């Protein structure tokens, strides 16, 4: 009898570990095997620490300020939520995710390497530190008021609600035609009113997490919304599996305030989605 009880306990532990592994696959940000959410597949890694140096060049585009810093380790491009910097001053930015061969669609320029930072580090270089930005966090986990912040170096920040938030991609995608068509931010704004209704949205696929709980989880962006509160990134579930980088029209049923349990709660999510 004692051996039987021990055997049952071992089986329960193994089953629990398998469930946690599946859930973690969707909760954790991009892994080393995940492709960069831009046209050219590229690897991305977190930067080692704060980036500081003299500002050599700066430009604003797509809600971001791009800054070329002359650092102790050479010249580095940094992109952060729009902020004020001037050529010649010394600026410091918080660490972020290093993107290789990143193409800015609004600048029509490809950077060999750019660090997507959440903002200035401690307000150095003039002006207050930017909050949120490329690595947003927030929300509330069931029964908790704490914020978990970003994981995996920031490439896909995770809200304490359990959902992955992918940093904003530099986009300006036209809204789909039709009475039930919405931009990403409009879906967030009108979520309760659109609950259980069919919606259409056009956007770019920036992340795909396949075969979790019997469906594929897709993140789409169109350039609308605010990265500080996560309204720039829309999650959809589907039996179809689009490719990262595709610009598609998605149609599905919107669910507002959807709670999957285990801390996975979505302000809005589009389900039963089909793509064209």
Please give a structural write-up.
The protein has 276 residues and is mostly beta strands. Helix content is 13%, strand content 39%. It is built from three helices and 14 strands. The protein has a seven-stranded mixed sheet with strand order 1-6-7-4-3-2-5, with no helix packed on it. A five-stranded antiparallel sheet has the order 12-11-10-13-14. Mean pLDDT is 73; it is low at 18-46 and 123-162.
End-to-end Cα distance, whole Å, is 58 Å
| Helix-strand sequence | HEEEEEEEEEHHEEEEE
CATH fold-level topology of the domain at 169-275: OB fold (Dihydrolipoamide Acetyltransferase, E2P)
Based on CA atoms alone, the radius of gyration comes out at 20 Å
Mean pLDDT: 73
Shape: elongated
Strand content: 35-45%
């Amino acid at each position: 009898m004692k051996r039987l009880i021990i055997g049952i306990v071992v089986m329960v532990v193994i089953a629990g570990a398998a469930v946690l592994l599946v859930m973690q696959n969707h909760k954790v940000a991009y892994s080393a095997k995940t492709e960069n959410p831009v046209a050219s597949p590229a690897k991305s890694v977190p930067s080692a620490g704060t980036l500081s140096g003299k500002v050599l060049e700066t430009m604003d585009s797509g809600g971001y300020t791009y800054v070329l810093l002359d650092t102790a380790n050479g010249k580095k491009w940094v992109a952060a939520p729009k902020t004020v910097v001037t050529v010649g001053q010394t600026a410091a930015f918080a660490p972020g995710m290093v993107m290789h061969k990143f193409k800015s669609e609004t600048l029509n320029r490809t950077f060999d390497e750019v660090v997507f930072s959440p903002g200035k580090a401690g307000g150095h270089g003039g002006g207050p530190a930017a909050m949120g930005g490329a690595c947003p966090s927030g929300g509330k986990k069931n029964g908790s008021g704490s914020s978990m912040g970003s994981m995996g170096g920031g490439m896909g920040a995770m809200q304490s609600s359990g959902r992955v938030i992918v940093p904003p991609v530099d986009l300006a995608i036209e809204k789909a035609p039709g009475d039930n068509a919405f931009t990403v931010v409009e879906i967030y704004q009108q979520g309760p009113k659109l609950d259980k209704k069919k919606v259409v949205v056009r956007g770019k696929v920036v992340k795909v997490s396949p075969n979790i709980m019997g469906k594929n989880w897709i993140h789409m962006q169109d350039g609308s919304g605010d990265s500080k509160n996560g309204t720039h990134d829309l999650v959809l579930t589907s039996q179809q599996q689009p490719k990262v980088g595709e610009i598609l029209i998605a149609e599905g049923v919107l669910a507002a305030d959807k709670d999957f349990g285990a801390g996975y709660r979505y302000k809005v999510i589009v389900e039963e989605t089909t793509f064209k």
